[in-house]
């Protein structure tokens, strides 16, 4: 998957301008479903990460009707998360939903200077922790 993002100079938000989603079956491309680009076919950019998130605030992360409809809400800015890659303090916790899957709900945790360190699917109970940080 390739994401198209940019930071705005005014607010400092990380804007989300699209993604190329490749679905593979038996190592062969089977679908580009979920791919979108802002300004094409009515797609609008969204914010993937607010510069100064406030608890209780909701924002659209992406929008292309019937393709990309993700929304995030800020739940906390002070979570501590322990995953195989370590323990992270002052994490941002978001609740993320999509109009494409009614009832779907994920909580994501973002550590300062690191990014996403844990995703929890509240419907299935599946967790996706950060396992390792590899330096350049």
Radius of gyration based on Cα positions: 16 Å
Strand percentage: over 45%
Determine the N-to-C terminus distance: 21 Å
Which segments are poorly predicted (pLDDT under 50) over 5 or more consecutive residues? none
- Report the principal-axis shape: globular
Give the domain tally.
2
Largest sheet: number of strands, sense, barrel closure:
6 strands, antiparallel
Number of beta-strand segments: 12
* Number of helices in the DSSP assignment: 0
User: What percent of residues adopt helix (DSSP H or I)?
Assistant: under 10%
Could you tell me the mean pLDDT? 89
Helix and strand pattern: EEEEEEEEEEEE
Biggest sheet: strands side by side, in what order?
7-8-9-10-11-12
Query: What structural class is derived from the secondary structure elements?
Result: mainly beta
Search tags:
single chain, about 140 residues, mainly beta, 2 domains, 6-stranded antiparallel beta sheet
Describe this structure in words.
The protein has no helices and 12 strands. The chain is an all-beta fold and 136 residues long. The protein folds into 2 domains: 54 residues, no CATH class; 68 residues, no CATH class. The strands form 3 sheets. Strands 7-8-9-10-11-12 form a 6-stranded antiparallel beta sheet, with no helix packed on it. Strands 1, 2, 5 and 6 form a 4-stranded antiparallel beta sheet that branches. Strand 11 and strand 12 form a beta hairpin. The model has no long low-confidence stretch (mean pLDDT 89).
């Amino acid at each position: 998957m390739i994401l198209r993002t940019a930071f705005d100079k005014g607010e400092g938000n990380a804007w989300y301008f699209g993604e190329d989603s490749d679905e593979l079956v038996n190592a062969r491309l089977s679908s580009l479903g979920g791919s979108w680009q802002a300004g094409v076919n009515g797609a609008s950019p969204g914010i993937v990460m607010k510069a100064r998130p406030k608890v209780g605030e909701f924002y659209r992360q992406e929008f292309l009707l019937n393709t990309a409809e993700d929304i995030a809400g800020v739940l906390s800015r002070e979570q501590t998360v322990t995953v195989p890659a370590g323990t992270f303090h002052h994490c941002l916790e978001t609740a993320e939903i999509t109009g494409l899957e009614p009832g779907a709900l994920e909580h994501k945790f973002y550590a300062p200077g690191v990014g996403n360190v844990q995703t929890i699917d509240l419907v299935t109970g599946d967790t996706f922790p950060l396992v390792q940080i590899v330096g350049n």
